[in-house]
Design goal:
Elements: H1 3-21, H2 25-46, H3 51-67, H4 73-88, H5 94-107, E1 118-121, E2 124-127, H6 136-142, H7 148-159, E3 166-168, E4 175-177, E5 186-190, E6 197-201
Antiparallel strand pairs: 1-2, 3-4, 5-6
């Protein structure tokens, strides 16, 4: 086991999770921006950090950093390919592959497969854009994940009721409640203070690891 690499992975993963506990996008964005080039360097120099190299906890930490490497979608896709290879060799888990698959697909503007990424919509937690929702539980079971309904209930238990997302108006700074769009879609809202129309597109704000 590469102890130094494992220790650094665990340290960075701990900071990642601590930043996300605050639900402060600026804080965890800064942590992600610091972790991304470091993980790229590790993968380039040593390959994917699997279980035999860094232990179960170190491999989990490596997956977590890749899961949040949204700042470089090309690298995130590379990590998914490496992670899938590692899982085939027993060096990573299918659950990790499922979560990163959904993250990468949404970043590419495509529907996710396993429903791991969710959003608040109309007072409920729902999956972001999802291929063939009727079959999602079968796909989830194949990856070691529980039923979709149980997962959504766990999200509510962790984050509370699905409150409407709020963003600041770029014109006056007033908080505006919005409906976040699925990948590839667009939604609109209007600031009640200044009347400015807001158009939202691209990647929605998500929950899910």
């Amino acid at each position: 086991m590469t102890q130094d690499l494992r220790s650094e992975l665990l340290r960075r993963a701990e900071r990642d999770q601590a930043a996300r506990q605050d639900l402060n996008a600026e804080k965890f964005g800064a942590v992600d921006a610091e972790n991304l080039p470091w993980l790229k360097r590790v993968v380039t120099e040593a390959g994917w950090p699997g279980r035999s190299a860094v232990g179960d906890d170190g491999a989990h930490a490596a997956w977590l950093l890749a899961q949040h490497a949204d700042g470089d979608p090309v690298f995130q896709r590379q990590c998914l390919d490496l992670l899938a290879e590692a899982a085939a060799q027993g060096e990573a888990t299918l659950r990790q592959v499922a979560y990163l698959t959904d993250r990468v697909l949404l970043a590419e503007g495509r529907p996710q497969e396993f429903g791991t990424q969710v959003m608040a919509r109309n007072g409920a937690w729902v999956p972001c854009s999802l291929r063939s929702p009727a079959d999602v539980d079968q796909r989830r079971e194949a990856m070691g994940l529980g039923p979709m309904a149980e997962y959504l209930a766990s999200i509510e238990a962790r984050y509370g009721p699905a409150e409407p997302p709020v963003i600041p108006c770029p014109a006056c700074g007033n908080d505006v409640e919005v409906t976040l769009p699925d990948a590839g879609e667009e939604s609109q809202a209007q600031c009640s203070a200044c009347g400015k129309a807001l158009r939202l597109g691209g990647q929605p704000g998500r929950r899910g690891r």
